[in-house]
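Bug report (template v2)

What were you trying to do?
Predict the complex of my protein with fe (ii) ion.

What happened?
Run completed; filing so the output is reviewed.

Input:
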Amino acid sequence: MAVLGIESSAHTLGVGIVEKGKVLSNEKIMYEIGTTGIIPAKAADLHSGNIGIVLANALSKAGMTMKDIDAVGYTKGPGLGPCLRIGQLSALALSMRYRIPILPVNHAVGHIEATRQSFGAKDPIVLYVSGGNSQILGLVDEPFRHYHIFGETFDVGVGNMLDSFAREAKLNPAWGSSVAKLAEGGKYIDMPYTVKGMDFTFTGLLTSAVKKLGTNSARDVAYSMQETAFAMLCEATERALLLTKKNEILLSGGVAQSKRLGEMMRLMAESHAAKVFVAPNELNADNGAMIALVAEKMLQSGMKYSAKDCGTKQKYRIDTAEIRW
Ligand code: FE2
């Protein structure tokens, strides 16, 4: 049984095909964010102009035609409305044209479950860190099986904080990996550190870092902001780990690609004999296969949707998505 997944929640348009948990193809194109960040309407234009070719490439890489596809999954949310709608409408059209089931997938579940499956992790505490999200999650069974949010950012995601700082510091491309590069060899200067229980905030840290740009070296500011943000995430994750008595930590989402965050998390985990899994880059970056992998699980566990259940939801919270497998 082959399942096709379409991801279009932000800058990436991806189409992936999986069969029995194996990725057969995973094609994508990406909107160039340059120094301005994502302009949703422009990203959506790029997605709609390229969905045909990305779909054709994914099918040809998998050695298939649409007739070989048994179900189609798409990202319902969270994400940018204009971008989400391109994937959703494409999936609906394919589902109707080829009379195959359609499955609406939560984007965060896509990142996390694809990684959990690839490592065979059983029951991890998940630190999901991307542009728009920073959450500490874990599976609970009541009142239905889902990822409970143990802690999260009260304001922006850590990725947005890094991207905003990158724009202020005129880095190109204006995102976290450029900040990480700039931070290499920096010295620590004092920054505001805000953790409340298992929740945290980043705007105070961002404001302070941007202010300090005028009077300190950009390298020292980038280093200090990054160290502070990651230390906050480690502290909150440690608290969730001890509270739930779980013994695995899974880092997922774009910011999980940060080497420094992985290092700091491993140091913390060592003292609790917990394992740390970091999603490989191909699953951390938005892609269609992660959506297909979850859609396949949803299908196998008997989840069924009609066209009217298959809209988009810009603020689709992960704790409202059922994990039936
Ligand atoms: Fe993502």
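What did the reviewer find?
Residues 107, 111, 130, 253-254, 286 surround fe (ii) ion (CB under 6 Å). The radius of gyration is 20 Å.
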